[in-house]
From TrEMBL:
<dbReference type="Pfam" id="PF00563">
    <property type="entry name" value="EAL"/>
</dbReference>
<dbReference type="InterPro" id="IPR043128">
    <property type="entry name" value="Rev_trsase/Diguanyl_cyclase"/>
</dbReference>
<protein>
    <submittedName>
        <fullName>EAL domain-containing protein</fullName>
    </submittedName>
</protein>
<feature type="domain" description="GGDEF">
    <location>
        <begin position="430"/>
        <end position="563"/>
    </location>
</feature>
<feature type="domain" description="PAS">
    <location>
        <begin position="16"/>
        <end position="89"/>
    </location>
</feature>
<feature type="domain" description="EAL">
    <location>
        <begin position="718"/>
        <end position="967"/>
    </location>
</feature>
<feature type="domain" description="PAC">
    <location>
        <begin position="346"/>
        <end position="398"/>
    </location>
</feature>
<dbReference type="Pfam" id="PF00990">
    <property type="entry name" value="GGDEF"/>
</dbReference>
<feature type="domain" description="PAC">
    <location>
        <begin position="90"/>
        <end position="144"/>
    </location>
</feature>
<dbReference type="Pfam" id="PF13426">
    <property type="entry name" value="PAS_9"/>
</dbReference>
<dbReference type="InterPro" id="IPR035965">
    <property type="entry name" value="PAS-like_dom_sf"/>
</dbReference>
<dbReference type="InterPro" id="IPR001610">
    <property type="entry name" value="PAC"/>
</dbReference>
<dbReference type="InterPro" id="IPR035919">
    <property type="entry name" value="EAL_sf"/>
</dbReference>
<dbReference type="InterPro" id="IPR000160">
    <property type="entry name" value="GGDEF_dom"/>
</dbReference>
<feature type="compositionally biased region" description="Basic and acidic residues">
    <location>
        <begin position="584"/>
        <end position="597"/>
    </location>
</feature>
<dbReference type="InterPro" id="IPR001633">
    <property type="entry name" value="EAL_dom"/>
</dbReference>
<dbReference type="InterPro" id="IPR052155">
    <property type="entry name" value="Biofilm_reg_signaling"/>
</dbReference>
């Protein structure tokens, strides 16, 4: 207090001064004195009440500016008003939000007064503080309640009114609201300042005025009134405490009673809306008195857990005892942190036990009231049932990582597990293996039996894969008919091969689909990876490549690739790294089925090799399946012959058995297609593949010379739908069209003719090569079709007197069986008299040519015989830089889609120009395909292309065309 002595002045001495000090010390208001003569106006005195209000001791505040009480909350409008008053040296009263020492806010009503000396100079400020937090809270509560009442009044179908008696003895409205008031346009805003006669119509006024006068006299008046055909019930009463009269103000309400039921229904709905609002969006309400431990749980809170209002006792244990054991510690910890003031909000999700024994997910929110010391004394909140949202979240999470049809993990989850498996196995000696499966013939199931049957097949395959996998393995579906399996702790290639055989064997059992038995096989690629350094995507890619390689050699096969991409075992009959450079009989990656040797596509010979000479079977067309005749069948030894016999006899077929064949079915009416359908219902896919069959037209008996022509029943079935291709090949209705390739610098010079295969229908229409080869592949006549196509190209070139180079497309059999393709091509060229140096084979990166190493070896074989190689469709997205690097082609052909519009598209021009520039640097000639405009040809010339081809020069035609007639 001594620090503030100067403020009191010299005139305050003796008893007066002591009395003044005692008054300051005893005041319940906080008193603050500051020194206005010093910088920052520091505090020089606070009384004990200030310390009680703020929690700060005198020694903690002296010398500080009062603004520290606001902390970071310095943007309050009242503080601006306070600063203006201090700057002007005048008195002011404001309410500011300050913060106690413990951080809790409080509202401070501050009366600030300046103190001046005898000369009028400002020396000090005196601040009188009053903690009005409770008043402020009460005021805000009243505002909230008032707003709630206003909302209730607004939605009620009534009029709520308040009228005052004016000094002139007239009644004036001060408040008129409600839905009914809105209807008549007599709301407060619209009728303010109007007299009674100006508000109501005459027929209503005659009843209302006497009633209101009685109410102003002190009575509570109930009366009825009408406006037109509408009736109203009215109540008016004095609005003065203690019943003092005469009153200066009356209140009341008006309710329409026209159609009482409608009014009651509206009132019921209004009540429901109010209750819904109170319940807070269907939430359960709880209130907890922390001082007594008493807990209130609303009826809705109990209802959410399956209980009636009186079936569950309110209390802390009713809540805590139902929390899921896994959530209990987390919930109680969060609650304690909030009550201790360590967190600002109490909000979390947890599970509560329902009466039916299940758990419901609950979102709980709460807020507390605290006493003057900051200790919580009451806490209230709500419970919201979020079980539906949680279940939806789980469903969405499951869908994000699982296949919707089979329930298996999808690619994303598989890759995540593969990455974790590689991390876990990093320090072990075992390997990680990936099995990539592609179902054989799945498209045929969809096409013949429908997509619903296809989906059933996929679900069953998923079930079998899981059944055949080991515990801990991951089976996933990548999409379509592709599945993938993660195998952990695999000892080596043999172990991986054994697991692949186990999976393959599990798929072969027949599946009942749409009333038919369907047998399933899968082409499988196995990639064996060393966990050290291998990337998940590389392992999957290697398994994918191995699967495609196995599929080339037939259905139901698998191939194992070792760590680092090496092929572990390779049988003879293919091309590989162990064969001589010019030997097309080296090894290829091993693919097996049930332990058998590799099988090549039907139409070729598994025994064929360089020393066997020409294989006549590959040149022989199968018999056309038409007309009456006999179908001879040799069923596999493990098949029950009697089952097939009984099935066919029951279907009305004439069936016989004999010693040298299992059975023969007579077809007197040529119904071979129906017979094949009947057999497919009793034989599985694998049994059909293993069954040898021979169709012999007419009625002649089987001879020994007929037996070598027997084929698998599967091939016989495929041939049934490809009779047109058999006719085309047997009748020699394949031809070649020619399109010239000219030198860009002199377009009149034809450098070469590209041979383009065409078929000719009996009506003379052209059949495109894609249609021909798709039918050949499905009917297993690929070798015969391929041989006929090459011979046709060479024959037509000779017949038309082509003396330039010939560009011939590289066919699939060149990949399936390079030895056969090379030998037959050399033989045809030799007979034609054309020099091999004139023939260029065009290679396009397709499904059959994914194995670049294999393709590189094949290209080397052709070059050794004098042929040249061109890489086709560069820039299409298929022919990659890797193909150029590994294949080392003699020519590069720019894809027509890259060339089209190149003269007007800067982006295309830049890409195509870089390809031409790269080819020149490699010393490789380039051919620009699809040139259709003068601008495209000019661009090719300006950018250094060697040759050009396209409609501008000549369209494909049955006879070779010349170049452009210009220099």
């Amino acid at each position: 207090m001594e620090r503030a002595d100067g403020v009191l002045g010299d005139e305050h001495e003796g008893d007066d001064r002591r009395l003044f000090k005692m008054a300051l010390e005893a005041s319940s208001n906080g008193i603050v004195l500051t020194d206005a003569t010093r910088d920052d106006n520091p505090i020089i005195y606070v009384n004990p009440a200030f310390e009680a209000i703020t929690g700060y001791g005198e020694d903690e505040v002296l010398g500080r500016n009062c603004r520290f009480l606001q902390g970071d909350d310095s943007d309050q409008p009242a503080l601006g008003e306070l600063r203006d008053a201090m700057r002007e040296g005048r008195e002011c009263r404001v309410v500011v939000r300050n913060y106690r020492k413990d951080g809790t806010p409080f509202y401070n009503e501050l009366h600030l007064a300046p103190v001046r000396d005898r000369e009028g100079r400002l020396t000090n400020y005196v601040g009188v503080q009053n903690d009005v937090t409770e008043c402020r809270d009460a005021q805000e509560a009243r505002v909230r309640v008032s707003a709630e009442y206003e909302e209730i009044i607004r939605i009620l179908p009534n009029v709520v009114f308040r009228w005052k008696m004016g000094e002139d003895g007239e009644m004036y409205p001060s408040y008129v609201e409600g839905a009914l008031a809105e209807q008549f346009g007599v709301t407060t805003e619209r009728i303010a300042g109007k007299r009674l006669e100006e508000v109501f119509p005459p027929e209503f006024l005659g009843t209302v005025r006497p009633a209101y006068e009685r109410a102003f006299a002190g009575e509570t008046v109930e009366f009825s009134s009408r406006i037109g055909d509408r009736s109203f019930a009215n109540v008016a009463m004095p609005f003065e405490p203690e019943g003092r009269t005469p009153t200066k103000e009356i209140v009341g309400y008006v309710t329409e009673v026209t159609g009482r039921e409608k009014a009651e229904e509206a009132l019921r709905k209004s009540k429901e809306r109010y209750e819904v609002a109170i319940r807070g969006s269907n939430d359960g309400i709880w209130d907890w008195d922390l001082t007594t431990g008493e807990v209130y749980l609303s009826p809705r809170w109990k209802e959410m857990l399956g209980y009636g209002d009186h079936e569950l006792e309110s209390g802390v244990e009713a809540w805590r005892g139902r929390i899921h054991p896994e959530d209990l510690e987390r919930v109680m910890s969060a609650l304690q942190e909030y009550l201790d003031g360590r967190t600002e909000h109490y909000e979390l999700e947890h599970r509560l036990l329902h009466r039916d024994g299940s758990y419901r997910w609950i979102l709980t929110r709460g807020a507390s009231l605290r006493d003057g010391s900051g200790a919580p004394n009451r806490m209230s909140g709500s419970h919201t049932d979020v079980t539906g949202r949680k279940e939806l979240e789980e469903q969405l999470k499951h869908r994000a990582f699982h296949d919707g049809l089979t329930g298996l993990p999808n690619r994303a989850l598989f890759m995540e597990r593969l990455e974790h498996a590689l991390e876990r196995a990093g320090g072990k000696d075992s390997h990680i293996a990936v099995l990539f499966l592609d179902l054989d013939g799945f498209k045929e199931v969809n096409d013949s039996l429908g997509h619903e049957a296809g989906d059933e097949l996929l679900v069953e395959v998923a079930r079998r894969l899981k059944q055949r996998s080991r515990p801990g393995d991951t089976v996933a579906r990548l999409g379509g008919d592709e599945f993938i399996v993660l195998l952990e702790e695999v000892s080596g290639a043999e172990d991986a091969a054994s697991l692949a055989e186990r999976v393959s064997e599990g798929l072969r059992a027949p599946i009942e689909l749409a009333g038919r038995e369907v047998s399933v096989t899968a082409s499988i690629g196995v990639a064996l990876g060393d966990p050290k350094g291998v990337r998940p995507q590389d392992l999957v890619r290697e398994a994918d490549n191995a699967m495609y390689r196995s599929k080339r050699h037939g259905e139901g096969l698998y191939e194992v690739r070792g760590a680092g991409g090496a092929a572990p075992r390779r049988p003879a009959g293919g091309v590989g790294s162990t064969g001589g450079k010019g030997d097309p009989g080296g090894e290829r990656p091993r693919s097996r089925r049930r332990g058998e040797q590799v099988q090549k596509p039907a139409g070729g010979c598994a025994s064929e090799g360089p020393s066997n000479g020409r294989c006549t079977k590959c040149e022989t067309l199968p018999e056309k399946l038409a007309g009456p005749g006999r179908l001879y069948l040799w069923l596999p030894l493990d098949h029950t012959l009697s089952k097939t016999y009984r099935h066919l006899r029951a279907g009305g077929w004439t069936v016989e058995t004999a010693r040298d064949y299992s059975m023969v079915v007579r077809l007197d009416d040529g119904r071979l297609t129906e017979l094949l359908s009947a057999l497919s219902a009793v034989l599985t896919g694998q049994e059909s593949e293993d069954t040898r069959a021979l169709f012999k037209p007419g009625g002649d008996e089987l001879t020994v010379s007929d037996i070598p022509r027997a084929q698998s029943l599967t091939q016989i079935s495929s041939l049934g739908g490809s009779g047109w291709l058999l006719d085309m090949l047997s009748e020699g209705r394949l031809t070649s069209y020619f399109q010239p390739i000219v030198r860009v610098e002199d377009p009149s010079e034809v450098f070469a003719q590209e041979c383009l295969l065409r078929g000719v229908s009996p009506e003379g229409d052209l059949v495109p090569p894609t249609t021909i080869f798709e039918a050949a592949k499905s009917s297993r006549m690929l070798f015969q079709t391929d041989l006929a196509a090459r011979r046709t190209a060479i024959r037509e070139a000779v017949r038309n007197g082509v003396e330039t180079n010939l560009f011939v497309n590289f066919t699939p059999t060149a990949v399936y069986d390079p030895a056969f393709c090379l030998r037959s091509t050399v033989e045809a060229v030799k007979k034609s008299g054309i020099s091999p140096e004139r023939i260029v084979f065009e290679v396009t990166e397709t499904e059959e040519t994914r194995d670049v190493d294999h393709l590189k070896n094949i290209a080397s074989f052709y070059r050794e015989k004098g042929f040249r190689v061109a890489l086709d469709d560069v820039g299409s997205g298929y022919s990659s830089l890797n193909m150029i690097h590994r294949l080392r082609p003699d020519f590069i052909k720019l894809d027509m889609h890259l060339v089209r519009g190149v003269d007007s598209d800067p982006y295309k021009a830049l890409v195509a120009g870089k390809v031409l520039e790269m080819a020149r640097g490699l010393g490789v000639d380039t051919i620009v395909e699809g040139v259709e405009t003068e601008g495209e040809f000019a661009w090719a010339r300006e950018n250094g292309a060697t040759f050009a081809q396209g409609y501008l020069i000549a369209r494909p035609a049955s006879s070779p065309a010349g170049g452009l007639a210009r220099a």
